[in-house]
Structures are given as structure tokens and as C-alpha cells.
Amino acid sequence: MNRKIGILRGINVGGKRKILMADLKSLCEELGLKNVTTYIQSGNLIFNSDKPNSELENKLEKAITEKFGFDVPVIVRTEKELESSISKNPFIAKDVDIYQLHLTFLKEKPNEEDIERILTFNYEPDKFKIAEKDIFIFCAGKYHESKLTNNFFEKQLEVGATTRNWKTVMKLSELSKN
């Protein structure tokens, strides 16, 4: 079975759309996912499944809506896809603080016209680079103060998105190897 990482958008933020990780884990097990682990309260899953990512995304989204009563976008990556993303981060450097780095996961690859348009935006000193279904972000300050948000990327690229800080990305990679 393939090791997969599920990333949920917008749960347990500001006391809204609350899902206990134990309940999320149980739901995943009910759906037939194996060796399910959760990481922190923001909705990160690691599990085994041979089903295609898009099928898992749809299955999880539907089950969460039915069980908890609200829509939660889900993005799934394989362990290998996550490793590939990590290796492509253009902002990794010796003098960069890990807390300045973030990875926005896209539900699907955006079209070229939308990519060309978004590249005209400049929010220096914050920077971003798009690579397939990933957006690498460097924030000079705090992420919550940046204009490079999920909403910005979703609006400009017309695809679903969710972001994790680099520390979380690296922890998800580590956990997916266990």
C-alpha cells in the first residue's frame, strides 16, 4: 500500500469548523484507510491506501461533510510527491529561517494563463514560485501578515489551495516514512 498525506483546509481555526483529530482518525479508518496518523489540530493525515489521490480527496470531503456538517477541502499527496516537492523548494538556503518558508498545496495544476497573470503580482519582500501543484512561499515577516494567502492563490489561479509552514511539511514527510 502507498503512504499518503491528506491535508485539510480550514479546520480548527479560530474555534470554527472544529474536528477532533481522534474523530477524524476514526472516520478515516471507517473509510478503509490503514495506519492512520494525525499531526497537530490543523488537519494533517498520514495513511496507507492504493486508491488514486483524487478519489481519496472526494471520498474524504464527502464523509467529512456527512459526519460534521460542513465542507472541508482535502488535498492528498503521495509520500513520493511530497518528497519531490520538498526537493524543489527554491527558497531553501543556509541563511533562510525555516519559519519564513511555506508550501501551498494546490488541488490541481493551474492553467498557464492564470499562472502568467499571477506572476505579475509583486508583494515584495514576500516571494512565491509555482511548480506544478505547489507554490513555494518565502515570507520576510509573518505569514498571517502576507498577502500570499490561500484566498489570493485560489482567486487568481481558480484552484483549491491550502498552506502549511515548512516545519509542518518536514514533519509530515518524516511521519510518512514511519
Automatic annotation (TrEMBL):
InterPro entries attached to this UniProt entry: DUF1697
PANTHER family attached to this UniProt entry: BLL4334 PROTEIN, DUF1697 DOMAIN-CONTAINING PROTEIN
Protein name: DUF1697 domain-containing protein
UniProt source species: Sphingobacterium daejeonense
